[in-house]
Amino acid sequence: xxxxxxxxxxxxxxxxxxxxxxxxxxxxxxxxxxxxxxxxxxxxxxxxxxxxxxxxxxxxxxxxx
Length: 65
Fold this sequence. Notes:
Blueprint: H1 2-32, H2 34-54
Helix pairs in contact: 1-2
């Protein structure tokens, strides 16, 4: 069981490290090529518009704090 935990921890570490590396490379790519930055910003804007358009309408009675 302990070996399984160590293996899972190693896989999680490798995944987090790979994710951070991809994020760093994306930032470097956006700084080097401004068109990539424009494309990412446009994609985020379109995604936000789609989420707002497809989200169901919520009223004050639906929101429970």
